[in-house]
């Protein structure tokens, strides 16, 4: 434990007393270390696509009179720059949410709206992998929060379910209300997550071996963003997973549906 100890002598004339103050700097040190690690990780992660983009553009110049090579390398260049753009986007999003800063906007949000929007943004990717997305509509369930962040969180979960599924599989999204909470479950039939990785997957830049070796795309920041968005909304994320059977990530936030229904009923009576 790192401590700063301050000793003060009080009233030296009449019987000496010493006041000792302890300031625990452990948390401040930990935060500073986390910040330093984060910056080091970001630099490392950015260097890979930036380096690749530099090399690829040089290669394109070198083979300018071989059109078929130019096309191949230009496609690779495009992929690397898309990867860089999405990494930067994730870094910006994470730095917005990880400090638990006040939400940029807070409004009444219909859960079906955010789920449909999140699915729409993932549909092309799902189709290109031959996956089906199934969502059972659950009308009139409401939460309070930042619509854009909530949509991003659900989209990240669906995006993972798609990327870690086998071709032809199914991704289901279910919304339920339970003891004052709204639960949005994203269920896949993919390879699942080994027990020893279950806590680590929410860490920044953590990527499973399979994700790295098979290059599933992604920055290793997706679940970290989801966790922080849930916490910023007074909620949490739960993970169930069994090797070979698939994973279920459940995004849980406070339910404000009853309050909304009461207001609507009152308005109907007026
Ligand atoms: P990534 O960009 O690598 O997907 P995430 O933070 O979204 O980063 O996820 C961290 C790791 O958790 C992934 O690299 C992967 O190993 C694992 N993971 C996340 N979602 C799933 C899922 N639905 N099925 C299996 N593994 C998953």
TrEMBL record:
Subcellular location(s) per record: Cell membrane
Transmembrane among keywords: yes
Main enzyme class: transferase
Domain named Histidine kinase: residues: 41-257
Chief location of this protein within or outside the cell: membrane
Coiled-coil region list: none
UniProt KW keywords: Kinase, Membrane, Phosphoprotein, Transferase, Transmembrane, Transmembrane helix, Two-component regulatory system
A GO molecular function held by the record: kinase activity
EC assignment: 2.7.13.3
Catalytic activity: ATP + protein L-histidine = ADP + protein N-phospho-L-histidine
Protein's recorded name: Sensor-like histidine kinase SenX3
Organism of origin: Flaviflexus equikiangi
Parent sequence residues shown: 119 to 388 of 388
């Amino acid at each position: 434990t790192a401590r700063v100890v301050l000793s003060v002598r009080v009233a030296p004339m009449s019987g000496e007393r010493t006041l000792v103050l302890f300031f625990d700097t452990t948390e401040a040190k930990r935060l500073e270390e986390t910040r330093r690690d984060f910056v080091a990780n970001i630099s490392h992660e950015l260097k890979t696509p930036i380096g690749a983009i530099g090399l690829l553009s040089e290669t394109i110049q070198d083979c300018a009179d071989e059109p078929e090579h130019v096309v191949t390398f230009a496609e690779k260049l495009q992929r690397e720059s898309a990867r860089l753009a999405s990494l930067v986007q994730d870094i910006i999003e994470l730095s917005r949410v990880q400090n638990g800063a006040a939400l940029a906007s807070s409004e009444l949000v219909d859960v079906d709206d955010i789920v449909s929007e999140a699915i729409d943004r993932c549909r092309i990717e799902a189709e290109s992998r031959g996956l089906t997305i199934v969502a059972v509509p659950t009308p009139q369930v409401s939460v309070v929060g930042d619509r854009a962040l909530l949509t991003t969180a659900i989209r990240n979960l669906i995006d993972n379910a798609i990327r870690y599924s086998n071709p032809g599989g199914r991704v289901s999204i279910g919304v339920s209300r339970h003891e004052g909470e709204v639960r949005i479950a994203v269920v896949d039939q993919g390879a699942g997550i080994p027990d020893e990785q279950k806590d680590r997957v929410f860490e920044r830049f953590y990527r499973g071996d399979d994700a790295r070796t098979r290059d599933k795309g992604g920055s290793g920041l997706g679940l970290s963003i989801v966790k922080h968005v849930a916490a910023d909304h007074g909620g949490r994320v739960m993970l169930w997973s069994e090797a070979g059977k698939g994973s279920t990530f459940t995004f849980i936030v406070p339910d404000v549906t009853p309050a909304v229904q009461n207001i609507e009923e009152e308005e109907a009576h007026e």
